[in-house]
Amino acid sequence: MSAEMYALELDGGRGGFDRIVVRYPGPEVGEIFEDPAGQEFRTLQAVKAAGLPSPIPVAVLDSSEGRFLLMEFLDGECTASSPEPLDTACRYAEALAEIHRADLARTDFSFLLRKSTTFTPKDRPLSTELREAEVVEALMRLGDPEESETVLMHGDFWPGNVLWTDGKVSGIVDWENALLGPALADLGMTRLDMYWAFGREAMEAFTRRYLELNPQPTESLVYWDLRAALRPMPNLFEWSDPYVALGRADVTGESMASVLLSFIDDALRRA
Questions:
Q1: Distance of alpha carbon 84 from its chain centroid, rounded?
Q2: Which of 81, 214, 249, 267 stands the most exposed, by the fewest C-beta atoms within 10 Å?
């Protein structure tokens, strides 16, 4: 279950805001942080200080339903549709590269968790339909990726967390999964979403544009692609719901499974 959010209209623009968002963190984050709302508040402060297009955090408050975050309501629209998917994918690449270029020496992100570069298999039955055992075996064979520069990672950079205004990216939301870690870890996760939303060519255009802006040694990309492929396996058919909410009823559990298998097949060949 993801975070719960509500938009509120404010009379007279109180505190300088006409609208504000009430956000209750998702239960998964509550298993990681003692105060997930406070953690996200601090993350948004740092992200905003780094000059990234994100909401201004306003306050952390308590209620009978739990602790919650108040933050700025950003104008814009999330979409997973485009008449020009290759160009749109490149705009996503530019936004992700901007995140990864955040100056960690100028803005303190040291309170964020670090992305683990060591793969540890989950203790649960593996999906035979999604070739999970083959992915696990490949990751174990590859071993830890080579060390690389540590960057600010969004941790969940997909069309549902990117706002558009007049054909341009105007805001990036949902920073509760932010981490410090390798740029390719974020890149691998978003590559799969680009494939789901816009197709294989768009995924490759996204990757090329990202690497033009933020050159990286790509030997480890196959490792992070395989790690990304494992994320949806326990509940893949639930992952289509957010796409439906973005107007993409054609993105179904079946279509996502088909794309995921193609993504895995390509990564296993490269591995």
A1: 22
A2: 249
